[in-house]
Design brief:
- The chain has 435 residues and is α+β, with helices and mostly antiparallel strands.
- The chain folds into 4 domains: 154 residues, no CATH class; 91 residues, no CATH class; 61 residues, SH3 type barrels; 83 residues, Alpha-Beta Plaits (2-Layer Sandwich), CATH 3.30.70.100.
- Helix content is 58%, strand content 13%.
- The chain has 15 helices and 10 strands.
- The strands form 3 sheets. Strands 6-5-4-3-7 form a 5-stranded antiparallel β-sheet. The protein has a 3-stranded antiparallel β-sheet with strand order 8-10-9, with helices on one face. A two-stranded antiparallel ribbon has the order 1-2.
- A hairpin with a 4-residue loop joins β9 and β10.
- α2 packs antiparallel against α5 and α14 crosses α15.
- The N terminus is likely disordered.
Amino acid sequence: MDSSIQPEFGAIRDTLRALASDLLSVWLAIQVAEIGIAAAIAAAAANVAQRRVDLTALTMGWPAPARQFCRLLLANIGTVVFVLVIAVMHGAMLSLTWPSRSYLLGVAARLAIAWFVIAMVAGLIRNQFVYRLVAVFAWTIAALSILGLLAPAMTGLDSVAVVVGGLRISPLLMIKTAVLLMLALWAAKAAGDFLDRRVRATAELTPSIQVLIGKVTRLLLITFAILITLSTVGIDLSALAFFSGAIGVGIGFGLQKIVSNLVSGIILLADKSIKPGDIISVGDQFGWVTNMGARYTSVDTRDGREILVPNEDFVTQHVINWSYSNNRMMLISRFGVSYDSDPHHVRKVAVEAAMRVPRVMSDPEPVCWFEAFGESSLDFSLRYWIADPDNGIINVRAPVMLALWDAFKREGIDIPFPVRDVRMRHVGPAETPKD
């Protein structure tokens, strides 16, 4: 065994021997029984408190932090009762016998206090998996510290290491890096969300600039979090040059689409060609831009579907932005009338009918064009503008068509339908072929 780690293993061995000797003592059994009684009392008290305390009614009207604190306190009330009962038992044992005969009670009390504090602090994390992970890890560190095993355990984990490209990697370094990186990324995400809300509340910025600032801010915060974490654990960034070539190759081959979509998203936000709220057509897809992510843009088609279009498609494909320079959008309704109708009168009636629909703009006003002499009708196209296409299109076209129908009925203008003449020609009986 390496002489550098012999003292640490010796300390652990001495602690285990001390615990083994305590197992043969009757006072250990008494302390274990007292701990069991305290746990039963705490469980019963927590059950009664959680059944009888109406936290919603009690904290009605309180500030959100106060309600959160009361919720966490009620959830951990059993631990509080356990600590109080153990403290009373420990004090009684100290007054009746030697302190060494109540050592386990003191350890149990300190472990319970550590768990209570960690649970109250970690309870602010909404993700249950992350909450349990943080709580268990923090309590393990606290338990090792209370038992006096933290320093030997850290030294033992650091004694086993491998060197890769000038970088010494040990289990302790990996654990510290993972924990600090998780905390740093969580802090970066929280700060990014806060700044994003503040930016979105600024009315002077356009939606595309708001999204661009939010994404750049998050990217910078995550980068700083990673760099600070690596510097904190003592990793020389120059030692990571060994991995830069592999990362570059990975980006060039496996991640090129992801990087392309990320860069395309930043380009779209910077040049404002596509922004949230725009009405676009990509290929045969038509809808409203609802969200622009790092990899894709969400397009709402208003029929229950939400299309996720890669950002690269907006840069490399033909895209129609119906609201690029303004929100006005022209719609066309085509119809035909009978040849008995006066086309000048039809145009006038159609324009007046469109003007009666609330969402149709009066400036520019609708126009009706006589387009063609059809087979059975005079063909017209009614063109009109709306200023709020994000509220829907079909719910404008349908009222316009109904207004045309009502106006034509009122003015006696007929809408023709194809008429087919079927002529029957008499054919004599077929001659019987002669033999």
